[in-house]
Fold:
Amino acid sequence: MNTGLKKNSANLLPSLAALILAGIVSSIVILILGESPIYIARVMLSGSAGSLSSIANTLEEATPLIFTGLCVAIAMRCGLFNIGGEGQLVIGAFVAAWVGYRVGGLPPVVHITLCIALAGLAGALWALIPGLLKARFGAHEVINTIMLNYVAFIFANYLVGLPYFKKPGQIPQTEDVLQSALLPRMTFLYEYTRLNLGFVLAIAAVLLIYILLEKTELGFEIRSVGHNPLASRASGISVARNMLLAMAISGFLAGMAGSERVLGVHRHFISPFPFGYGFAGIAVALLGRNRPLGVLVSAIFFGALASGGAQVDIETNVPRELVTVIQAIVVLFVACEYPIRKFVFIRRRTAL
Amino acid sequence: MEFILEIQGITKAFPRTVASDDVSVRVRKGEIHALVGENGAGKTTLMNILYGLIRPDSGRILLRGVDLPLADGFLGTDYGIGMIHQHFMLIREFTVLENIILGAEPKKGFVLDRAGARRRVEAIIERYGIEADLDRKVRELSVGEEQRVEILKVLYRNAELIIMDEPTGVLTPQETSGLFETMKGLVADGRTLIFITHKLEEVVEVTDSVTVMRRGRVVGSVPTAETDAAQLAEMMVGKQLDALPRRASASIGEPVLEVRGLSLEARAGIKPLRDVSFEVRKGEVLGLCGVEGNGQLELFEILIGLRQPGKGSILIGGADVTRLSTLSRREAGLADIPPDRTTMGIITEFNLRENLLLGRQRESRFSRCGFLNAEAIEAETTRLIDQFGIRPPEPDAMGFSFSGGNQQKIVVARELARDPDILVACQPTRGVDVGATRLIHTWILRQADAGKAVFLVSADLAEVLSLSDRIGVMYRGEIVGMLDRSDANEEVLGLMMAGVVN
Structure:
């Protein structure tokens, strides 16, 4: 237990150090813009955690990030860099919207489950394309997942323009999903919140992925392949099988993110679909060090940045884009883990 | 005679162990000084202190009678100390010349003086007769050639005191003798070598004096001429060693592993196999010796299912497994000790518990409906740690934190715990300390005594001779001879390995 704790805190330190450094650099940027960092921080804090409504906003922003963060993390644990969460999410969102307005007469529980399951499946299939190319031919998944993002966007844009899918009118969007497919919003927190049951599902996904990775045979094999494919093969573990499964699970999670946006927030599919959750998932997974619980915490952190940033935009002279800058700085410092680790631990290392 | 190096009372404590405990060593100018000891005896720590990579807690080091600034941190290269690491530090996409001059490039103004660099390196090559093609890229080189580049690197930097950390561990016998020639040339030129090794025959063969370390202390320091391998081994492990265990002829049964007419075409980086056939029977150790790189690795990969043969078949317990996966073969009773433990044997980022489970995670007692059974795994981990004496006995310690000998024990423990009908052991004790080697040999023999079959592939003749019931010799992808142990000796096998007789 003791060593386990020590290991965790050692894992946590670089992420914390990155956050502190990002805070310092962001303060400098704010000073250059002629504002007080402390004031901005206070506005950010009240905008993200100052009231029930702002907490709801934070969690609402965090929900898709939890899914896409897990999507990147699980693939990464198998040694795969899935940059295609964006495309898998769009495909999932489209399927969720379609099933949501087209299939009627179902009780809500069944209808919601059906929408989410099919959206996840669609995302999984989309992710299996680069997965298969990698497992069968060794084609690099980074290139293929990135390219399939564009394919997904254009494909979904094409589909929603077809008379069969398109709601009559100028805007390329589907009909709103039926009442029975809507994820209930948590209006007990705040009347106008868009925070919905999807958040609870995201928490469940965190727990499930944690159990999968740490407690199951499949998770063991996925991690084993991620660390050392050759030793895994020599021990009778199929690298191709585990890569395909990891990609499928990864894509499923991205598809779920898409369904949460449609069933809980937008209520229809619209082209172009709101962009960025898939890519932000990479940053979330990076900051969360590809651990499910780490992803949860870092997704909420990024969610807080987003909702706090909105408040900053409204109340101060600092533009909302600053929040994007802060996110970028955080990612930059997390990516610089090695030099930071060296800097932070230099005393301990020479002591060794 | 003059001492170029005097290490006096160096002590260095790590959080869990004392790696150097009041260590004193004196090295004469122009000698080859062996530093021997088991893994974890403190050799590498001491050399890292000498090279300036680690600061000691106390003690002093005099180089040519002058104190090295131990407290301030320094770099060995600035003081004429060169170090050839166990794992080479070369850039694969650079040429040999570029690697040699990297970090110490001669310049004309702001421009790299390539011609001048080449002249200097060529002068060194000529002076010591070290073969090297300066224009080839390092990725095209063999391990022996890479090592020569490392040697040229330290010579280019004019090192007078050269530390070689287990330089022969990765070399073939021919490359080793070439290295020894080079080493002799270097000391004849007045340079001093510190030679870290496990292999006591090499100490006797090539060094002038030897220091033995055990558990962070110097056990003794003697001129090589006044000692022998047996005495050194005793000093290293701290107890009298018997000769390698030889066992009484066991009762040998029907074949477990049958290999029929395996062939493989040579391709880039892949050695050919030609019509390889043999069988390994119950209660038998079949040894396969040969200079490394004669197709043993390819044969190993085909046997465990990582590579498909061009022709031929493999049978385990009479059933054809040629087209079956590694997993199916393991379920049919195969276990393996791969030739390279850190790339194929263990997963360095897995902890001990996970490494002991690797490949066994689907066994019904460890996995129920896909969920791992933590209690059963913990019990098995504890059992294996005790039974195989894995140190440190910490299930949470990461794979990379174990010494080479203990990493190998992890592999052997895991594989033998599956109670395999046929064990394929490839170079099972390479780079492993004497104590662990003896344990691994005992375990291999115990398998055969229990009526199981063992196929042992090794470049270490003594190992093959002392463990095997029959011995095959591999040369250029063929088995050029198969002898009973009683007919085999080092001389005959040596000639066959060199392709002289069959």
Remarks:
- The interface with chain B takes residues 3-4, 7, 215-218, 220-221, 223-224, 227-228, 230-238, 350, 352 of chain A (CB under 8 Å).
